[in-house]
Amino acid sequence: MAQVVQTHSAKPHLPPDGRQGFVSDWASDQQVFKNVSWGKAMMWIFLLSDTFIFGCFLIAYMTARMSTVVPWPNPSEVFALTIGGHDIPLILIAIMTFVLITSSGTMAMAVNYGYRRDRRMTALLMLVTAIFGAAFVGMQAFEWTKLIHEGVRPWENPWGAAQFGSTFFMITGFHGTHVTIGVIFLLIIARKVWRGDFDTERRGFFTSRKGRYEIVEITGLYWHFVDLVWVFIFAFFYLW
Amino acid sequence: MVEASGAGEVIPPAAVEDVELYHPHSWWTRYVFSQDAKVIAIQYSCTAIAIGMVALVLSWLMRIQLAFPGALAFLDAERYFQFITMHGMIMVIYLLTALFLGGFGNYLIPLMVGARDMVFPYANMLSYWLYFVAVLVLVASFFASGGPTGAGWTLYPPQAILSNTPGGQDWGIVLMLVSLIIFIIGFTMGGLNYAVTVLQGRTRGMTLMRMPLTVWGIFTATVMALFAFPALFVACVMMLFDRLAGTSFFMPAIVEMGEQLKHGGGSPILFQHLFWFFGHPEVYIVALPAFGIVSDLISTHARKNIFGYRMMVWAIVIIGALSFVVWAHHMYVSGMNPYFGFFFATTTLIIAVPTALKVYNWTLTLWRGNIHLTLPMLFALAFIVTFVNGGLTGLFLGNVVVDVPLSDTMFVVAHFHMVMGVAPILVIFGAIYHWYPKITGRMLNEGMGQVHFWITFLGAYLIFFPMHYVGLVGVPRRYNEIGETSFVPESVHDLNVFITVMALVVGAAQILFLFNLAWSLRHGRDAGGNPWRATTLEWQTPQTPPAHGNWGRELPVVYRWAYDYSVPGAPEDFIPQNQPGTFPTREAGA
Predict the structure, then answer these.
(1) What is the homologous superfamily of the domain A37-239 according to CATH?
(2) Per-residue CA distances from B239 to A236, B76, B274, B464 (Å)
(3) pLDDT per residue over B37-76, tens digit each?
(4) CB within 8 A of B102, min separation 6: which ones?
(5) What pLDDT, on the 0 to 100 scale, is given for residue A4?
(6) Which residues in chain B are contacts of A210 at CB distance < 8 A?
């Protein structure tokens, strides 16, 4: 398949510039995004779509919060932990955020080692990322438990607007589900990397296609996205 | 890379190595859990048409109730509400969206861009089966206690989940929402496939500006759906919580039957915004594939290149983008700041510009064309007329002051049935008559097709033209009977009977169409590979119907745009896209 064929008329013509050039670059042959694999393109488009989901959730939350006529519970008090006799506001959230951001760092390193085809380091770093992710979900479970013990329910809470509990459980729950799926995804890919599937071109169980180390980067895209979404949830839910 | 002597553009070798296809070994993996986009397309289409027939029967029952109130003993007010809800939801989502994107998208995208299959065949298979489950859940609500939801297809809260609405405190609304959520997840899997296949999976020489407009329409609609369905997904999830977990996202403080409900503080308007942020793009998710397909039908059957190809592409893209900023024109009567009403009315009317541009271009394509009045052409012409008619009433309803008195009357029903019911359905019929020979290798029967066309086309007008009048005199929609009301003249009752009779006739004509589909499978005239003498790639496959992998050993190479019809000096009146050589082309530059 190495032959070159002429698919456009041979009449002399210069590459157009300006708007026309912009269009013809984007519309050019075979691929819009040169050297971007199908998997990566799919993940990017999926993440754009997912952005709309989280965007709708957050806008719905902001609408509820801005239009409510009863007081909104104060996040720095609600999300405070008593440690050594002191109420420290947002301490758990700070740790959770730190853990998740750190996991993005280990993920980026895993991608780097993946492209060097360093099987062991890649798998190890993905495992570390997954552990950070699981720790995040664990702390979230702790936070949920604490709030539920204090009487927060989706339909009511002791401090004010009922929508506080509903939006909190829905948005953090949906994000936590994303993290959990990411952890599972990471573990599956880490196992494949460890086993050397991408060196031996072993075929996938479901798709019967050969995997490549690029899947590490695609997993990474998803993971960074989930991380980025958390930054917005953190800003709009906890800091507001 | 080699530069040709005239500094012409030379395309390097294939950017992506030829894909390895999954080769099915058993009947199950070949025809049931198939990963072949063509089989998936047929599965999608058959399921969509089957559930669409349910919706058709529901519309018959509703029309019988409106013309002869009480004639059917079981059809009380609750049943009527359930039927309008299910009719609307099935037709918009489970028939039109699934058929255009899942059916035509799956069949035509890989063939038209010269790919062997969708880029992710396994996800594509899952997409269909999730759609199938969504349909099953939807059908299950007919058999659940309390029956399906009767909230109206827009599912507005708070009434959607109150006990006096059919299915509100039973299973109806829950199954509806769950079904939609499954549908959206399934669609996302398919939609990612369609988008990536168009963006990254084209064959050599197939630039975006050489794609047939069908692919442009389906592609733009897919991208829109990927951004619009999330809003519906979120709305469904939140309403499910309101119904099952006792939250109050959409539920204000409310007294029902003298009893204060536990809800309070939610915003019903929020649901309307989320719903219509999905709902308006949805109109164009259905319309844009129709625009694309009809362009190809007209060009092929008028033996003339489409007029203003690049303009058509831009019009599709601009309509798609604009349709995201017009949603609140469905909410004028919900109450909003007058400046918002002004904004949304303005954006709504601006959409008329690219849309009118497309209509002009279709007309100019026909002008002095060599028009063959084949069945696909008849349906395409019928579409243009119907779309203009439906679109004109859209200009009325897009203006706040005109919309307010007309809102929630039968005028609105007539409007959206013309513009997004009849018009896209006519394109679907045209497309089926056009591509059936490729899918099966046989032509559909012409005689039955003519009967089907004329009854459907004229019948649709006899149904929906009088309905405009019924709406103008003030008959509200969603009423199971009007009774004796001073403002409703006697003529409305006569018209209602007339509309109902016509609806029964047009519905029956569809049974003839289905019979034709089945009959021609065995008895149709042999079609050959390219019966319409069309230029696009799907007609150039080595086998008809196309085999697994579509193209045999070598992928096609594209040398020209999709519309080289009646090129002066060419030996035939069409030049296939994959034909090399020095024949002149009318392709626009770049």
Answers:
(1) Cytochrome c oxidase, subunit III, four-helix bundle (1.20.120.80)
(2) 22, 27, 11, 34
(3) 999 999 999 999 999 999 999 999 999 999 999 899 999 9
(4) B40, B41, B44, B45, B48, B127, B128, B131, B187, B190
(5) 66
(6) 20
Rounded CA gap, B287 and B290, in Å?
A: 5
Of B218, B217, B225, the residue nearest B188 (C-alpha): B225
First-to-final CA distance of chain B: 20
B-chain residues near A27 (CB < 8 A): 207-209, 590
Within a domain: residue B436? yes
Which of B226, B247, B559 faces A7 most closely, judged by CB atoms? B559
Q: Is residue A69 exposed (0-12), middle (13-18) or buried (19+ Cβ within 10 Å)?
A: exposed
Q: Tokens at residue B314, please?
A: 């831009």
**How much is the pTM?**
0.94
- List all residues of chain A from 35 to 54 with a beta carbon under 8 Å from chain B: 35-38, 41-42, 45-46, 48-50, 52-53
- The answer to whether A7 and B161 are in contact (CB under 8 A) is no
For residue B46, tell me if it sits in a domain: yes
What single-letter amino acid sits at B195?
Answer: A
Determine contact, residues B21/A25, Cβ cutoff 8 Å. Answer: no
Structural domain count of chain B: 1
Sign of the torsion formed by the C-alpha atoms of B316, B319, B323 and B329? negative
* Chain centroid offset of residue B161 CA: 28
**Side-chain half-sphere of B105: how many Cα atoms within 13 Å?**
35
| A78 CB burial (10 A radius; 0-12, 13-18, 19+) | buried
pLDDT in tens, A32-89: 998 899 999 999 999 999 999 999 999 999 999 998 889 999 888 888 888 888 888 8
Contacts of A103 (CB under 8 A, 6+ apart): A128, A129, A132, A133, A136, A223, A227
The answer as to whether B25 is a domain residue is no
Structural domain harbouring B175: 34-249+271-540
CA A73 to chain centre: 28
Residues in chain B: 590
Residue B386 lies in a domain: yes
